[in-house]
Every structure is written in structure tokens, then in C-alpha cells.
Write a structure and sequence with these properties.
Four copies of one chain form a homotetramer. The first copy, chain A, is of the alpha/beta class. Helices cover 28% and strands 22% of the residues of chain A. The longest helix of chain A is centred in the last third of the chain and has 15 residues. Chain A is globular and about 60 Å long.
């Protein structure tokens, strides 16, 4: 059994990870770090009662390295970069679900996260946890940076097409996320009576997932990313519009995904929906070629907490520890 | 008192119109046409019980012309074009909330609605019911074609900027609507357990509101329109992305709306939300200029049934009958 | 025109009242009191922008009495009892939508609101604002205590039956409210991702509306009140179970409501639903007699903010000022 | 590996069962029966694509008995009683998630399901699949009748207290369910715009789960069952009110559940919520003793599709096949 710890156990990403570890046949949660130390997980999160007897503790790198084979980080930007260096020094493998080690360019990090990077020496070591693209490096690394949720919903459908995208105009990404993506911090805008029956856009032109998408598309595709939130809990739908170069054969580009266990290529004229990926590790996508305008529109769906965060983190763990990649993840979508 | 009739009383647009007439100080519902003739409105639509004693009747152009000063049509595409000619002949004014008389180009009508237009002789007479732009003609016409709901959410913010839009790339419109926009016909995709917690795109590149937007933007701006539905009942949020020509002064272009009673220009960096327009005749919009990409992103919100359909229809009626344009419509948004 | 002020303008009850005054043909908002003084209503509540130019002010009883014919109080329990005495002294009529003057028994007030009543001398003057039962007294009073929202959903169907209710067992009231009833204060339990797709009970056996219901049922019927909240914004559904005495003729008891403009008696076997009263001043109810068990089950629905608060407050105002009682309130339910 | 088949694969209970089998470490789906035979499960239910290669077939008892060790029935009342006799004759074990074999009294079956029972000879053999109460018989039976979802939400908290319940008045059960409980058949009342933001009661005094609850409470407790549906997808909240006999020690009665893996006794003053059991096999409950009225109010929560149907079916399978009872079911609640 892989012994796993989680730092940031009570946040929404942490909760989902703990839920997934609870049913993983070859991994178990042995340590959980959070501000509310001393309490049991079930006390703080009644949904998890009777599934684990782990108690919340305070952070101690040495102790975690003894207790755990791997530690997952489920923290806001700017916090894991202080905790990962001591963890790595103590010799434990780390899977970071936060953003600190995703961007290779520290200037971008400063611009989008508003602070200097304080552990740039680890950026080379950190492997970007997009399993279908970094499998080999994931198998041998000890530090993984799991991609952002919006980012995965864009990279899976767009990266195979990148050579066929015209650079004359940005790739337009209009994405909508359920509110779990906004986390557990209270905010008037997310008070139930304010957000129910509402839709809103936010951070237009300045969302921190923009440079991450651009980095992983090769650096020369400009992305216009417009995120929204809608009145539901889980799931991202991304509608991606761009101009293809002449002769782009979309279906052929996606043939590389035939063996991917968690990517479902729906085909031309078939559009992804949130309902089919909820509660699963899948990313679904399909597309429409608009001959009138010459644009290609791709629609993708992912569960932001599962496939978009904790599920991909577990998939990376499976690869790092030589397990079957799908272990503990083979859920169909929860519909309804 | 203006005596009003409605054809298609039980559909969602018809219901909203009846609700608005119920509180209009100078208009009253006197006739309602629907398949379920013989029943009272309150029997068929319990929400309206005790607010009206009108009974559903079958269509009879002569009788309607005697009973009514104005008849509202709340029908699917392809049905009002057969009923309006006899009504106009009988001499009654008509406000059509359906699509039959919006497109001036009958080839576009055939392409997007899948049928020949059967009353093209009325297309010249029909005034496009976009009050801020056609006020003078509305004051004297007897036939109004109320614009589509998505269309208004795009035209209000984009039309003042049209001279400043680069023609090198389409205007990208990603819009999301509440489910009331899909009407009352049962469909598996709109069964509550299927649509709750879901988001989906539909009719990409072929939605019938596309040519209507293009027509009213002057005919030489190409629109890439991608509509979605989300898990809520009322309201459209449209996110509109395009490349402005150098020197476009957005705020200045919107000065023309200062006196408009139902358009609220939020300003730069302020984004519209569905919650502020729900249950009202307002269309809100604001924008972000992304200097990095050179694109302008405008976000607008409208209540698809109120401001986007029945409210605009009543506003047109007010103009046609010489009333204060805001009569019966001066609602603030229902938030929460 | 009746000149109206509102104290507590930004809370959800205050907002709804302002929205209703905005379309009332014979009343207008002239003053609004709230902590955020100095700002315009539209700045603080974007939904109301362009519908009023009133600015928020601080409380000043003398000035309010000069500006206004009537002042509405939209405050939490324990705050209006300090502000109403100076307002009454300054001579202005007051309609209190909060709870301070509903309970005639100050011991009950202390027990359920946790504080001594500080203006008991006004309790005799205060008329309970349940229009169908206190019309005559409302016509001449200067101080009204609008009933609680849950309370109205119970009193309308149960009060006419009170002589026919067995005293052997309590009247069981299981009610569910939309989240707008919880107000605008942030709370983890009402954070969107926590409350969406959730239902919860609260304050079982100790909700402050319990003594109010019992008072208005005559004081000798015991009520077991179990309130819940569900994942929606507006509307209360109350399911009321009790044992009728032999021979109770329910339909006959309800004949007294035939002329009531806002009570809709649906009849036996017909059950009220939230969707038909949303956005209206109606209270709907129907019932089932279960012969097997000998129990009667009544189901009622009301919009907690409209019919259950602000709408009833306006109805009281109409009566106090000699207007037609339905003025400004004749909305059908907003469905969908 | 246990080879499992499912009849009624496309209904909501069938889908959930297939999802659960997909991650069960010692069971696998090998056959699926539904009207749409010939298609793959992933074609008909995109949420399940890439998780199974099983194709839908028509019913054939002999073939199923060869392919499967156990067959789950996920059908409406009145259909499984015709299919189970041939399956049992062919020698395969059967777990029926529908209602046909729950009621021991065929007169009750006729009264509540509107038809004669056509396989009464199997009623003795059928073991009621309430695991905590029928474990020993489940271990050796070949036919299980999984309880109704509402029923479990009532029996778990009430059965241990049954000796302490006064018979003077019925046990009042007011329960609310998410819409997945209504199944996939289209109905105007469950069209998204009609049911969103709505709550409604139904089948008051005549719901078919009433006799099932009464049967399992021993036959001499009368139950007044009032079911509701609310605007969400999954989960039942049951609020249960009754008069306890003097001296009832609730906490002590629940001590018998200390070792139950899926029952969480929250304690006095702690109330269950749907959010903590969603996506899990748990039933949570807590209670309030109202000293003023002398009533006890218990609130329980269960996921109608998981803990309330498919999860309990899998738990029964685990017991029948000698596996650890929690195998494949140890999920924490999905919150958010």
C-alpha cells in the first residue's frame, strides 16, 4: 500500500483527493495537514466520517517523510513553494495540485500570481502532470505539478491540433466552471441567493491559467481566456474557437488519444456536456467546423475537482509508483 | 385602456406577456388564443389564476380585430406568417414576438428556418422592434417584429461600436441562456435530472439568430455565434470578443445610450451578471480591453423572457400607442 | 402619491420592497436608510440602478417624518423597537416588516428572541398586518407589524379550520424555504457549493415563528414547527398535518376567502407548488384528507419575499391610505 | 470475480449500479438488458463510455444464468415479478431493486401498485435487503428485495426506537427527494423550467412506500407519509415526528449501530444534511427532543440512488457472496 499524506486537507481539492484515496485499492491516507489540527477528519468534514480515522496535524516535514511515501499539496498559489523544499529534502515524493510549479517562466509567475517565486531551483525538477504527455518523466520524478483545471480542459483538445492553428488571431477560450472551483472561502458573490440563477464572467484577460495554456501549447499561440462561473457545483465546459490552417484533419490528429483511458473523443458534430463527466476522471470533447466562417469550434468538458484536479493527481501517483494508471479511477460519469 | 390579445398564450413568452399586461396601468388582456380553447387562463396556468378572467379561444381574425387594439404573437417560427396577413387585413395592429418578420432576406429565412417565407409582401411593412434604434418608425407602424433574445444581448453593446470593429476576424459571441429559452416542449435533454448541474452548447455555427445579428450590424460583420444552455431558468449572458480598430473610444460610443431607460452601461472593467437583470426590462453591459492580445471583450446580460422578449414587446406597444415608453416596465431587477 | 421611506434598504426584504414601490402607481420611494449612507441605491444594488435616484442616508426620525408619509422597517429582530418610538413621536406612520411588534406576550419575545422588549408600550397600538383578518383595524392604525413569512403560509390555510382541529396532538408544520429567507449575511452553510444540491432542517422546536403561529391560532393549539431550507432562492412550501374533529367541512370553512384577492384555495386533492406563487403576492393552498389515518394534510405555498413580506407590507399600506388593496400588487406568478 | 448482469440498464437505478460495479474490485458487469438492445452501453449512456464494453441485449433467462453469477433487476413495479421466476428456475441469484418482492402482504401490493401479484410463491424466499437487519438470511438466500429509498431513510432511524413510540398518533414522515427519484420518464412537472426553483408534495396518504415502512416497523405503527420533490438531483431528507413513550433513551437505542459501516448516528441536536451523504452509501441521522411539545423529531439523509438503491444492492451482493460487506462501497460523501 502506498502511504499518502495531504497538506490542505479541508479545502475542496483536498476533500476530493481524500475521497478518491478512500476507494483506491493500493493507496491509503495516513496523514492530513490543516489549520484545524487535533480534530479528526470526520469531525471537520462530516461527509468523510466513518471512512477514515486520520486526525488533522500541523506541518512537520520530517514526520511526514517518515509517515508517507507521497505527499499531496492542495494549497493556494504561493504556499506550497515554501513547504515543498523541506519535504523534498526529507526525501518524500510530492504531488502539488496547486500552481506554484506549473509555470517554467518565473516572470509569468510574478505577473499572474503577484509575487516572486521563492523556490525557482525546483522548477527544472518539477514534471508537469499532464499524464498523456509526460508519462515517461512522471514515472521517474519525485515532484509533480498537476495542471490547472481549466488548463486541462483546453490542452487535451487543442494540443494535438497546435500545428494546424492559424497564428493570425488568438485562440478564444470561453469557459464556464461550477462554483466548487472558487473554493470554500466565503464571498458575497458566492452566497447562495446571489449566485443561484446567476452567471458571471471574471478575470477577463488576466486569469492565471492563461500563461499555463500558452506554455503548454508551445509558446507561440496567443490565448484569449474568458472564464465564467455558473449556478452549479462541479464541471467545466470550455468552448474554444480558432481559425485552422487549410487542410487540418482534426479526427486524424486525435488518433493519438485512442489508447488514453480518460480522454473521450466524441467526434465531429458531437458536443461534450458537463453531465457526462461529473464525478469521473474523463475529459470529453467534440467539434464543429463552421464552413461559413472558416472557424473551428471545439467543446470540452471535465469535472474540475475530479478529472481536473484530484483524479489527475492520483493518475500521476499511479504512474510514479508503477501501478496501472487507471487504478482507483475507473468511474463512469455520475449521471444523474 | 389598450385592449390586447395574445396568440400562443400558454407558451413561455405568452405567459410572460400576460404577466406584464396584468400590471400595466394602461393596457389589459382581453383575448387569448391557444390550442386548449374553452378553458380559463388560470386553469391552464395556475400561476395566473385570479389575475385574469380571460378564457382561451380559437383563432378568428375578424373577432380578434373587433376585440383588440393590438394582438401579440407568441409562436414558433413559421406559424405567425400565416396568421398575421388576415389580422392585418382585418385592421388590427400586430406585435410579433416570433421570428417570422425579423429577417429582411428571405434566402436567410429559408436557410435558417428550413422553409419558404409565405408572406414576404409584409416584410417591408414590418418594423424591427429594437426600440432604441427604430423609435420613429415604431410610432407609426402597425406591424412589429420583436428581435430575438440573444440578438438583443449582442446588438445593444455591439451596434454602437460597429464602425470600430476590425473585419479581419469574426465577432465571437459565446452566450449562455437559462432553460426557459428552450420553451415548454418536453425533451430528454431538458428533463430536470439531465439538465440540472449541466452545461451544454448547441447549434454551433447554425443558430438562427446569427443572420439576424449580422443584418442589424450592417451586413459586413461576420458573427461566430455559439449558444449554450445552463442549469437555471432565466437570463442570457453574452461574452463578445473581437478586435477593435485602433483608436476606438468605447465609452464615447456608448454616450448615445445615456437617455435610454432600459440600457445600463456599466463601464470599463465592470461585468454584467444575470442576477441584476432578472425579472426586468434592462440590458446591462460592460467591457474589458485586453492590451496584451489587442482584443475587446464585452459582457452583456438580459432576461430572455422579460427584457429579451415580452418586455421589449410592451415597450414597442407603448411607443405605437403614444404612451410613455417605460409604462408598466419600470421594474428593478429581481435580486435575489 | 404616498411618499415612502425604508429603513434597512439593502437587506433582501428592503430590496424587494423598493422593487415593488418602483412599480406602484400611487406610491414612490423618497428615502432609504442603511449603513452605507451617501451612496445611491443603484451603486449598492446594481439591480435597482436607473429605477430610482434615492441616496442612502443615516437614520434621523425628524427628517424622515418630514420626507415621508410612511416608513417601512426591514430590520432584524431587536432593532426596530428602538427606532419606531421616535418615528411614531415624530408623527409618521410605520410598517414594520421585522418581528419586534408581532408577539403580544413579552415573555415569548424574550424566550424566542433572547432579549427584553424595550418598547412594550407600543404593543397595544401595533396592529398585526394579516390583511384578511385585520382589515378594519389596519385602516385606522399608524403602526403595523407584518407577520412572519412562514407564519402566513400556515395561518392562511389553518386559521379558518381552527375550531375543527383536535387538541390531542400538535399541529405538525414541516416547511421548506428558499435561501433568500436566510438573508444576506455570509455563512458557511449558505456558501453556494455547500447549499447547492442540499436540504437541511434547522431550529427544530425553537424557531421564533412558533409562538407567533400559536398566538394567531387562538393560543390553545400547539404547533410543532420544523423549518428547512432547500437549494433555491424564493418560496415557502408548508406541509401541515393534524387531526380534524369529526365532521369538519374544509371547503366550507374556506368559503370566507372567496373575495380575498391574494388567497387561492385550490381545493381537495390539489396541492400548492412554489412555482405558481413565485414573484407574486399570492398564497395558494389545497388539502388531502387521509381516511386511513384520520389526518388532514394541507399544503400551502407563498413567495417568502413578496407575498410573505414586502407584498403584504404594501397591501397594508394600501389599506392604511385608503387605496384599492391590490394596487401595485396584481402580479401573476412568475412561472417560469 | 463475481459476474453480474443488470436488467433495466438504462434507468437511473441501473446506471448507478453499473457505475458502482465499474469500480468494485471483485465484481464486474458482464451483461446488460434493456429495450435498446444491440447498442453498447457507452453509446446509450455517454457517461459510461470507455468504462465498459458490454452491449445491451434482450432478456433471455437461460443465457443470463450462464453468463452471470448474479442478476440485478432495476425495473418499475410490476415488471420484475414476471422475469424473476424464469431466472430463479435457471439457477441464477437475483437482487431486485424494484418493489415487487418487498411487501409480504399481497393485498397491500394490490392496493398500492394497482395489480395482482403474479409470483406470490416467491415471497417467502425473498429476503428483505436491509443489511443491518437481515444479514444472516442474506448470506444464504438467492433472492433479495432491496428496500425502497424513502423506506430506508425512515427505517434506519426509527426501527431501533419502535418499542418507545406512542401508538396514539401516527408517525409523521415528511420527506423530500431529489428529482432523480422520479426516474427518466419525461413529464411536464419535471421539465427543467417547471421544476427548477420549485418544491411540490405528491401522493399524500397514498405513496407505495407507506405499507413497506409499516411492515418493517412491526405492523402496528401507523405512518403518515408525505413525500415531496425539490429542485436538486440526488438525496432524500426525511423529517420524522412522533410522540415517544416516557423514558425512551434514544442514544441507547442507537448503540446497536456502533458497528454498522454505513450508518452514522450524529447524536442529539445534530441534524443530517443531504450534502454529507451524496454519492455515498451512508445514511446519517440525528434528533431533537422538544420538551415543550413532548415530541421527538428525527432527521435522516440518504442518497436515493446510491445508499438508497444501488449501494444497498451491492452491499447485499457482498454479503451473499461472502465478501467484506464494504467492498467497493467505501466512499466518503461527495461534498461538494
Amino acid at each position: 500500500m502506498i502511504r499518502a499524506g495531504v497538506i490542505g486537507a479541508v479545502g475542496y481539492a483536498g476533500r476530493e483527493l481524500i475521497r478518491l484515496l478512500g476507494i483506491h485499492p493500493e493507496a491509503e491516507l495516513v496523514a492530513a495537514i490543516e489549520l484545524e489540527s487535533g480534530k479528526s477528519l470526520g469531525e471537520v468534514m462530516p461527509a468523510l466520517a466513518k471512512t477514515t480515522s486520520v486526525k488533522l496535524e500541523t506541518f512537520d516535514a520530517e514526520r511526514l517523510a517518515e509517515q508517507c511515501d507521497v505527499v499531496f499539496m492542495a494549497l493556494h498559489g504561493g504556499t506550497s513553494m515554501d513547504l515543498i523544499p523541506p519535504l523534498r529534502q526529507a526525501g518524500v515524493k510530492v504531488i502539488d495540485m496547486g500552481p506554484d510549479f506549473r509555470l517554467k517562466n518565473t516572470a509569468d509567475f510574478k505577473k499572474y500570481y503577484g509575487m516572486e517565486h521563492r523556490a525557482p531551483e525546483l522548477l527544472d525538477e518539477a514534471v508537469y502532470g499532464l499524464a498523456p504527455y509526460y508519462r515517461e518523466r512522471l514515472a521517474t520524478t519525485s515532484l509533480v505539478a498537476v495542471p490547472g483545471c481549466y488548463v486541462m480542459s483546453v490542452l487535451f483538445p487543442v494540443r494535438p491540433l497546435v500545428d494546424g492553428i492559424s497564428r493570425d488571431f488568438p485562440v478564444i477560450v470561453d469557459a464556464i466552471s461550477g462554483l466548487s472551483g472558487a473554493g470554500r472561502a466565503l464571498h458575497e458573490a458566492f452566497h447562495f441567493p446571489e449566485m443561484n440563477e446567476n452567471v458571471r464572467a471574471y478575470k477577463l484577460g488576466m486569469h492565471q491559467h492563461t500563461p499555463e495554456i500558452e506554455q503548454e501549447l508551445g509558446g507561440d499561440v496567443m490565448v484569449q481566456f474568458s472564464p465564467h462561473v455558473g449556478p452549479y457545483t462541479r464541471g467545466i465546459l470550455s468552448t474554444i474557437t480558432f481559425r485552422p490552417k487549410a487542410g487540418l484533419d482534426v479526427a486524424k490528429c486525435y488518433e493519438r488519444y485512442a489508447g488514453e483511458p480518460f480522454l473521450r473523443v466524441l467526434g465531429e458534430g458531437k458536443l461534450a456536456e458537463v453531465r457526462f463527466v461529473r464525478g469521473s476522471n474523463f475529459c470529453d470533447f467534440g467539434w464543429v467546423m463552421d464552413k461559413r466562417t472558416g472557424n473551428l469550434i471545439v467543446v470540452s468538458a471535465i469535472d474540475n475537482l475530479f478529472g481536473g484536479t484530484a483524479g489527475m493527481a492520483v493518475q500521476c501517483m499511479n504512474i510514479m509508483f508503477g501501478l496501472d494508471e487507471t487504478k482507483g479511477l475507473n468511474f463512469g460519469g455520475m449521471a444523474p
